[in-house]
Structures are given as C-alpha cells and as structure tokens.
C-alpha cells in the first residue's frame, strides 16, 4: 500500500525542481525527503527521478506516476475535506482559474461573496486566457467560455451569453456594412485562441441559420477578449465579442453593433473540474453558488 506522505514528498520534489527546495516548502530536512523518495522508488520497483548535482528530472515511469500521484492526492484531500466539512464547514484552499475578463466582471465578485460565507476557506484565483491543466496546475475549478473540447474533465453549465459583432462608429462610417457578404469581406480583428476564428454561424430574423466565413483581411490578431475590444475601439476593424463585455462601450457610443438583425448562437460558461471519484464538497458548493447567483440575477 502506498504511503501518501512519501507520495506527497515526491510530488513536492517535482514541483520545486529539487530536494532542497522541496524540503524548505515542506519544512523537512533534505535527508528525510531524499530517504522517503528512495523508499517510494523501492516500493514501486522503478526509478522515478534522474538525479544530478544541479537538478532532478522525471523518468518515463516518474512522469506517469507524477500525474496519477497528483490525482491521488487531490482525491484523498477531497475525501478528508468532505468528511470535515459536514461538521465544521469548509477549510483549506479553493483554487480557481478564469479568463481575465470574465474573472474580473463576474467571478471575483462571486468569490468574494462565497468567501464571506466560508471564512475558514482560502481562495486562490489565477487569470489566464490560455487553457490550463487542472491536475498539474493544481486547480479545483476552471471557468471556461464557449464550446468544450476536453472530455477528460467534468463540466457544469453556469450560464449562457450572447456574442455580437461590433466596430467603432468612425470605422463604420468609412466602411459601411449592409449585408452578410459585406461583413464577411470586411477587415476583422481576430481572437487567435479560438479554434475556428473565421468560421461562424448566424441566425436571421427568419430563424434560418447561415454560414459566415470571414474572407476579409485580419491585420490584427490577439489572444484576449479585452485586447480584441481595445483594437476594435481604436478602429482596427470588426470584432466578435461577448455582449456582457461590450455593453457599456456600446452605451457610451465607443462601439456600435454590426448588423443587429442577425445574431450568433449563444455561448456557454462552464465550471470545469477534474473527473475524480470524490468531488470536493467545496467544489460542489461553489458551482451551486455560481449557478444560483446567475439564475437569480435580474435580466
């Protein structure tokens, strides 16, 4: 039977990049950490690490064991927290990853309210436009927008939102757009992290779905929605953005919706979490809190 303490120390060595740093992070001596990792290797009958004077590296077996060890430690932690949470409320750390824009607009206010309900909980929030690996990144939850492609995680729908095509009013004066054909041939600002940034569907007033393939030039490309909106406000072309993000800019007259008689299919916002046997109670509670918060929000 695996010794979870030794497994945790092995993971600490990998995460810290060496025995000395791992010993400092776990408040143990280097000799104890080294001994326990050697014992773990002896129990498994394989070498997990290649040691040198400057660094340690994972062997092929070590890489496989490291990924499974992360999952094992998370499941054991979730089981303990679930049992303890039934008696004394949530404690420990809740780690969540979001995009910068949605995190600032929606999730951080929600996390602040959730934290007030659970004062024993420490909340770690990180912003990134790039997809994160929940296991290696040690995240409990990631908030993702749009279509989900990774089936190795579980996902819960939080809400749906509309996306709209927008441009700066002065740009539209110089480049009037009166049809889908003109929209397709216009100059666009592209979100380069989308899987198919030039292929879209639109729905007209007749409820018919049409294909929209952007053939116009895209001189500006970026990797965040906030940066894309900034380019569009500067008159660099048309951009496709979440309605909740551009609403105020439209009200101020900084942006104008293009072809409002057409709409794009709504997108989902999902709470994504590791597909483990024991889902932490704090994760389930957070997802329920986010869903209730959005369902009770005034339209």
UniProtKB/TrEMBL annotation:
HTH lysR-type domain: residues covered: 2-59
Coiled coil regions in record: none
Keywords for the protein's UniProt record, in alphabetical order: DNA-binding, Transcription, Transcription regulation
Pfam families, per database record: HTH_1, LysR_substrate
One of the record's GO molecular function terms: DNA-binding transcription factor activity
An individual GO BP term: DNA-templated transcription
Keyword Transcription regulation: yes
UniProt-listed InterPro entries: LysR-type_TF_proteobact-type, LysR_HTH_N, LysR_subst-bd, WH-like_DNA-bd_sf, WH_DNA-bd_sf
PANTHER family in the record: HTH-TYPE TRANSCRIPTIONAL REGULATOR, IRON-REGULATED VIRULENCE REGULATORY PROTEIN IRGB
Similarity field: Belongs to the LysR transcriptional regulatory family.
Name of the featured protein: D-malate degradation protein R
Originating species: Cedecea lapagei
């Amino acid at each position: 039977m695996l010794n979870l303490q030794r497994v945790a120390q092995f993971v600490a060595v990998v995460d810290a990049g060496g025995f000395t740093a791992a010993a400092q992070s776990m408040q143990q001596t280097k000799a104890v950490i080294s001994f326990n990792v050697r014992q773990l290797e002896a129990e498994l009958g394989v070498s997990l690490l290649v040691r040198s004077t400057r660094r340690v590296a994972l062997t092929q077996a070590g890489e496989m064991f490291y990924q499974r060890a992360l999952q094992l430690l998370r499941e054991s932690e979730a089981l303990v927290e679930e049992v303890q949470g039934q008696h004394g409320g949530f404690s420990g750390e809740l780690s969540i990853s979001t995009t910068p824009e949605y995190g600032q607009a929606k999730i951080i206010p929600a996390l602040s309210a959730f934290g007030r309900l659970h004062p024993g909980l420490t909340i770690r929030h990180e912003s990134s436009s790039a997809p994160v690996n929940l296991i290696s990144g040690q995240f409990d939850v990631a908030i993702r927008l749009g279509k989900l492609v990774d089936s190795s995680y579980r996902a819960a729908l939080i809400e749906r939102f509309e996306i709209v095509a927008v441009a700066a009013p002065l740009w539209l004066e110089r480049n009037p757009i009166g049809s889908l054909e003109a929209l397709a041939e216009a100059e666009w600002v592209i979100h380069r992290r989308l899987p198919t940034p030039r292929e879209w569907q639109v729905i007209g007033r007749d409820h018919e779905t049409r294909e929209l393939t952007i053939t116009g030039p895209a001189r500006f490309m970026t990797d965040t929605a906030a940066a894309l909106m900034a380019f569009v406000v500067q008159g660099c072309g048309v951009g496709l953005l979440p309605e909740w993000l551009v609403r105020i800019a439209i009200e101020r007259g900084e942006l104008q919706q293009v072809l409002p008689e057409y709409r794009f299919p709504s997108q989902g916002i999902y709470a994504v979490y590791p597909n483990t046997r024991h889902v932490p109670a704090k994760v389930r509670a957070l997802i329920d809190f986010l869903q209730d918060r959005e369902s009770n929000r005034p339209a």
